[in-house]
Amino acid sequence: MQRQAIDELAALPEENLLRANALELLANLRLNLEASENLSEEDRELIMNLSSAYLQWRDETLREGMQSGIRLMVESMLEVKFGAIDRELSQIVEPRNAIRSQRPHPIAHAIIP
Description:
By secondary structure, this protein is mostly helical. It is 73% helix and 0% strand. It is built from 5 helices and no strands. The protein is elongated, with a radius of gyration of 20 Å. It starts with a helix and ends with a helix.
């Protein structure tokens, strides 16, 4: 029954917010169970069932981080090349990320003289 529920959750579209939140919670559950001592056979089976959900969550999280990093690097390079990003450039590049620093990334200066 657990396996079926996990599979159904993982089958939801990636943009489904419920899926993303539930996968994160299942990943945390798996990590907490793995850290426990004296696991029962049922706990071991649950860890195995959660493995695919954990891997999907990890892969999606890494992909989002990479996309964010690439976007920040492109924005930094555009700022070095053209100065402040104006309205026209901002329409090309996604809106700035809230965590972005106000200075261009150092690699942008190395790539674009």
